[in-house]
Amino acid sequence: MKIPKQAQLLRIFIGENDRADGRPLYEAIVLKAREMQIAGATVLRGAMGFGHSSRLHTTKILRLSEDLPLVIEIVDDEEKIAAFLPVLETIMTSGLITLEKVQVLQYGTDNE
């Protein structure tokens, strides 16, 4: 799979407890991105964060450690990211989505 030097980074901020069709939302997003042959997706788990409700989610307070923040980063060309955005609208009920232009310096090797 080729990815252009100029690409887009789609960043999705959700909670660990967010669900889509009974399974974790992060899993639904990553599997859909893979199905649509997006170049790459990574899920990052945060140690602390808050969102629109200003409710603090942290590993330091045991009772709040169940819904830690997650960030999903997805990189591909602008067209593929644009095609993926309507899919996100159908499976997400809340969260924050950002887009930024990125420069890809390396993606895989010639042996793949």
TrEMBL record:
Signal peptide start-end: none
* Superkingdom of origin organism: Bacteria
Q: Which Pfam families match?
A: DUF190
Q: Spell out the InterPro entries in the cross-references.
A: N-reg_PII-like_a/b (IPR011322), N-reg_PII/ATP_PRibTrfase_C (IPR015867), UPF0166 (IPR003793)
Q: Which PANTHER family match?
A: UPF0166 PROTEIN TM_0021
User: What's this protein's family per the entry?
Assistant: Belongs to the UPF0166 family.
Query: Can you say what this protein is called?
Result: Uncharacterized protein
- Organism the protein comes from: Mesorhizobium temperatum
